[in-house]
Request: fold
Amino acid sequence: MTDFFAPCPRGLESVLHSDLDAMGAQKVRTTEGGVHFSGDWQLCYRVNLESRVASRVLWRVKETWYRTEQDIYKAVFDLQWQHWFNVSHTIRVNTTAIRCALKSLEFITLLVKDAVCDRFREHCDERPSVDTLDPDVRIHVFIEDEKLMLYLDTSGDALFKRGIRQHTNIAPIRENLAAGILRLSGWKPGTPLLDPMCGSGTFLIEAVQMALNIQPGIARSFAFEKLLNFDKAAWQAMKDAAIAAQLPPKPLEIYGSDMYGDAMKTAWRNLHEAGLSECVELNQANILEISAPRDHGIMVANLPYGERMGELDELAELYPKLGDALKKKFGGWTAYLFTADKAILKLMRLSPSKRTPLFNGAIECRLLEYKIVSGSNRPNR
Reply:
């Protein structure tokens, strides 16, 4: 059994916990901002390949207590780094701390880097180079009070970088947050889905991948492929099975619109380059003017933060009109609106049936659920 930690957007820990349980992970334990779990290396490969919500998969290589900087140096130096990756691989050290009594996190980062390099120098009279932009191996240091935890990153680039969405507009939502919102909405393939503010198409692409059983990591590479314990045959078999399980692209009841032509072009380009453009119906339209494409379904929308639709006073004018449009045209639908603007709660003139706190990076947001009944400002109880 190997111990791992999968960070995720705050608010989605329960979704990730459920996914890891379904994959057969052991000792699954949720904490703020992620989930601890144990399993074999094939499970690590699978979580990297299949998790739509995790941000990374980190392998815990050390957990201990410390008092001084020298304690940290010794804990890092004592690890057999040369058994995990080659001296020819470039490295980067990331340090995060909560309630750390030591003065400088930058100094701790340098200390850990020196300890790793000194271990290699003692073993083979060479040291790995540092690459802060595109390293082969990322070492993560977490300090909480007097506890030190060291991790090797098995993912490389963050897992929300699917290798699919190549073009973005202003303030795009991250893919794993979009996937988590779809999960929280209860949307299932076959249910009509509409994103009326689709931007670069993140919700749409995530939904199509779910519907066609396309694993989110199938189009990219991972850091575990560079580790010395990498099982190439097992990984290739896992990828082959995932590709064989994919469904061919076909028209789906997934709809996207945006009032801006540039956004529509970007969404279409992303879908087209992924070979998925036939799966989604796109239309340029104002959210206040569109009609429901079906008599029931789920709407998801990442509401503007001010950049796309103007300043806050314009948003204040939008919200009551949006509430009226939903009541008039989307009876039988459930809308999930993602926003950081608390003013919407008063100005929409609709009562949300559920409010789920979520974080978009460091920004505290809410996912508001509205069950729409035609001509009513009351949710369907």
User: Anything to note?
Assistant: Confidence is low (pLDDT under 50) at residues 377-381. The CA atoms of residues 170 and 308 lie 7 Å apart.
